[in-house]
Design goal:
It is rod-shaped and about 80 Å long. The chain has one domain. The protein has 3 helices and no strands. It is mainly α.
């Protein structure tokens, strides 16, 4: 009888440790995913703001269309830089 009680206690401890390990991994992954998503959102918002500010400040006259908005929203600042360079070098957008 004593062996069964100890075996049950050990299995409960193993189950609790396994649950703790799973929760630890989920929390760690959740933090890193949240950090990545937050960074992408910030980059997209900064890209849209930079597009409007630079378009107005440099007087480029680039009309914002869906074809330009999607890359700016997806890639942010690098897309804005590429679009402005294309406009400066007279590449049709």
């Amino acid at each position: 009888m004593v062996f069964n009680i100890a075996g049950g206690l050990i299995s409960e401890i193993v189950i609790i440790l396994a649950i703790a390990l799973v929760l630890f991994v989920v929390i760690k992954l959740g933090k890193s995913i949240l950090k990545l998503v937050f960074g992408i959102i910030i980059n997209s918002v900064l890209g849209i703001i930079a597009f409007f500010v630079l378009n107005y400040a440099l007087g480029l006259g680039i009309m914002l269309s869906l074809g330009l908005f999607i890359p700016i929203a997806l890639f942010g600042l690098p897309a804005v830089g590429t679009i402005i360079l294309l406009k400066i070098f007279a590449v049709p957008i």
